[in-house]
Specification:
- With about 300 residues, the protein is α/β, with parallel strands linked by helices.
- About 30% of the residues lie in helices and about 15% in strands.
- It has nine helices and twelve strands.
- It has helices spanning about 15-25, 70-75, 90-105, 105-115, 140-155, 180-185, 205-210, 230-240, 280-295, and strands spanning about 1-5, 30, 45, 60, 80, 135-140, 155-160, 175, 190, 215-220, 245, 265-270.
- The strands form two sheets. The chain has a seven-stranded parallel sheet with strand order 8-7-6-9-10-11-12. A five-stranded parallel sheet has the order 2-1-3-4-5.
- β9 (about 190), α7 (about 205-210) and β10 (about 215-220) form a beta-alpha-beta unit.
- It is globular, with a radius of gyration of 21 Å.
- NADPH dihydro-nicotinamide-adenine-dinucleotide phosphate binds near residues 141, 164, 221 and 271.
- (2R)-2-hydroxyhexanoic acid (7N6) binds near residues 12, 62, 64, 88 and 275.
- It is an enzyme of class 1 (oxidoreductase).
- GO terms for molecular function: oxidoreductase activity.
- Its EC number is 1.1.1.-.
- This is D-2-hydroxyacid dehydrogenase.
Length: about 300
């Protein structure tokens, strides 16, 4: 089997890493540039979509979220589309734990002060502990469970939101999407872990910021458009919420003139919350497993279309 490794992966890391992993695990691999024909390959491993990918029999997206892929059109063609769920619980769980700890223990502010050689102690009531604080995890799949597990370990109370009223280990109360305002009302942290869909676009807007506590923090590790970014800026400026940890942004890269860059109580990361030095292996293993299934005549895992 011959894999094309699409250079759109360079948006996140060196595509050669994936190519080397696939070669080491039995798949011939070639890096292909955007716009190149991929008709001769058995699979294209890619970060993003482009029209030429429909030439291939199988396209594997290295992301869990496939909101930027025209999934309806894949369903109408002979090109199979698979994605990469199930590999982000630890990375995102730790990223969110890190953001929550920083806000509580004020580490981001002391790091800012360090750049000014400033021995500056924040007001006595600025610091708090995560223990006994409540986090509301919106979306209780791979990401949400990874966040809930670590929040539990830090002594936090966890509530969550999902479409199906199915209990989740370590989550005290599971709310349905219609009860989002109730779910977030008492939380010190609201963590977004949902896919971007018609239902979740702008699910956090002015009403939700008003429903949140004034001392609450929003953490978005999902997709930028899940949050109404103008409403977020208003909420930060008016004091409707205390701050935000943002790994996902409406426009990526976040424009240099975005007012979010200058906010003291905003921690910004450039959509790296899931990255780790073994991401190429995690994603490569999914491709190898499906290649083996095809060779055995079995149906593929993680099919989107
Ligand atoms: P999963 O499919 O495992 O989980 C999604 C969860 O969202 C499910 O619990 C689902 O509910 C819930 N959900 C879906 N729609 C709604 C809704 N309208 N209201 C409330 N809950 C809803 O996905 P993952 O956890 O793997 O990933 C989630 C998203 O996070 C991805 O689609 C991607 O966009 C983003 N992501 C971001 C990363 C980053 O680098 N920052 C890394 C990986 C993913 P139910 O269980 O009831 O179906
Ligand atoms: C890291 C992207 C996803 O949807 O956006 C994330 O999986 C992770 C390559």
């Amino acid at each position: 089997m011959h894999a094309a490794v699409h250079d759109s992966i360079a948006f996140s890391f060196d595509p050669q890493q994936v190519a080397d992993y696939l070669e080491a695990n039995g798949l011939e691999s070639t890096i292909v540039e955007s716009g190149s024909s991929v008709a001769e390959y058995d699979v294209v491993v890619t970060f993003g979509h482009e029209e030429t990918l429909f030439e291939a029999p199988w396209v594997h997206c290295i992301r869990a979220g496939i909101d930027e892929f025209p999934t309806d059109r894949y369903a109408e063609t002979d090109t199979k589309l698979t994605h990469s769920p199930g590999i982000h619980a630890t990375t995102i769980g730790e990223t969110v734990a890190g953001m929550m700890l920083s806000f509580a223990r004020r580490l981001h502010r002391y790091r800012d002060n360090q750049h000014e050689n400033a021995w500056r102690v924040e007001s006595y009531d600025a610091a708090f502990t995560l223990a006994d604080e409540t986090v509301c995890v919106v979306g209780l799949g791979t990401l949400g469970e990874g966040v809930a597990l670590r929040a539990n370990a830090l002594g936090m109370d966890v509530v969550g939101v999902r479409r199906r009223p199915k209990p989740v280990s370590g989550v005290d109360s599971v709310f349905l999407p219609d009860d989002l305002s109730d779910a977030i009302a008492d939380a010190r942290f609201v963590v977004l872990c949902v896919p971007l869909t018609e239902d979740t676009e702008a699910m956090i807007g002015a009403n939700e910021f008003q429903a949140m506590r004034d001392d609450a923090y929003l953490i978005n590790v999902a997709r930028g458009p899940v949050v109404d970014e103008n409403a977020l800026l208003d909420a930060l400026e008016s004091g409707d919420i205390a701050g935000a940890g943002l790994d996902a942004h409406t426009e990526e890269p976040l424009p240099a003139d975005s007012p979010l860059w200058d906010k003291e109580e905003v921690i910004l990361t450039p959509h790296v919350g899931a990255l780790t030095d073994s991401y190429h292996e995690d994603v490569g293993a999914l491709v190898v497993a499906n290649a083996e299934r095809i060779q055995r005549g079995e149906s593929m895992f993680d099919r989107v279309a």
